[in-house]
Each structure stands twice: as C-alpha cells, then as structure tokens.
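Deliverable D4.2, example record:
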Amino acid sequence: MYLLVLGVVLLLLKYLAVGPVADWSWWWVLSPFALTVLWWAFADKTGYTRRKAMEKEAQRKLDRINESRKRLGMPVKPKR
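Output generated by the structure prediction step:
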C-alpha cells in the first residue's frame, strides 16, 4: 500500500512539474507501481493476504467473545 501511495505522489509531482521529480525519467516515476504489482502477486501466491485476513477475523471473533464474557461478569481470555 505504501508503494502505491508513493507512486501516486510521484506521478502527481511529475505531472505538475514540481521540484526535482520533474527532471526524473518516467521509468523512475512509474517504478513504484510495478513494485506494487510484484508485491501483490507475491503476497497472493504465498498466502500472506489470506493469512492476514484470517488473523484479523480471529481477533474480531475473540474481541466479540471477550465483550460478551465481560458483560456476563466472566473472566476475559487474553488477547493473542
């Protein structure tokens, strides 16, 4: 995500001819987009994206359970 934001910022700076970025080659300005595509392909192929989504969902489930337990006056499970 950071590479995508960097790419958009560099693209705007190049298009508006601001600062030293105006003198850079288009290859340098567009390279963060290529790196973003490579990162997304790597993350999807290795399962990183799916694993992070599953961890987030498990944490949300644990938070809901803990909230219910707290309302009932039961001990709360520790966070992972």
